[in-house]
Specification:
The protein is an alpha/beta fold. It has one domain (9-222): 3-Layer(aba) Sandwich (Rossmann fold). The protein is 50% helix and 17% strand. The protein is built from nine helices and eight strands. Helix 1 packs across helix 9, helix 2 packs across helix 4 and helix 4 (96-106) runs parallel beside helix 8. The relative contact order is 0.22. The mean pLDDT is 94. The structure holds 2'-deoxycytidine-5'-monophosphate (DC). 2'-deoxycytidine-5'-monophosphate binds next to helix 2, helix 4 and helix 8. 2'-deoxycytidine-5'-monophosphate binds at residues 16, 38-39, 42-43, 102-103, 106, 132-135, 183, 187.
Length: 228
Amino acid sequence: MEKSCKNYVIAIDGEAGTGKSTLAKNIAQKYGIVYLDTGAMYRCVTLTCIDKGIEPEDIEKINEVLKDITISFKKEGDKTIVICNGKDVTEEIRTPRVDSYVAKFAAIKEVRDKMTPLQRQMGKTTKVVMEGRDIGTVVFPDADVKIYLDCSEEERANRRYKQNLEKGIECTYEEVLTNIKERHKLETQRDIAPLTVAKDARYIDTTHLGLQEVEDLVVSIIREKVEL
Ligand code: DC
């Protein structure tokens, strides 16, 4: 197959804790590609709604939030700052409070109808590595490269628990595992854009792989399709 060296989209999908973010960030940084964390966008919507006391059932109020919401990403050194409605929410969107609601807000049609075109827009004009749940299936079904990362629930909980501890976020392993299991159900069983492996995605089980092993494998897959 002919390799594309113009603009391209590398879609990385999979559940929380599969190592998607670290992988996508590392690849973006090493090869000078734009990184887009679409989960952060759903987290921004969730944070804005719960700060206003809006429940996931209140579609009318959610629509009001969606009408005005602005979400942008800013590079600061090797960090990406997430700005929502003019405020730096990078840390706040990662708290257990947002974790516990985000899958519910992300399952709402109106929310996805707003986020999907924004993501397409952000991916249209440059080389981008975009990570999420539906990038290879819905947002960019024609993505040049599609990767699907998987991992056992226990190992994913283990990784997320360690990350939380490092960030000083208080939680127990059991709480994290319960949240991961609930999110798995919500994300794979929702009506709109459920998490599923795209037919033409390369499936990688990372349960017993180190970060570097996954990165090496993914970089070799990307190189089969596009010029890094
Ligand atoms: O990747 P993450 O844990 O930050 O994602 C937050 C939530 O958003 C999670 O419940 C899955 C959802 N999500 C989604 O539905 N579609 C995406 N493209 C990205 C994330």
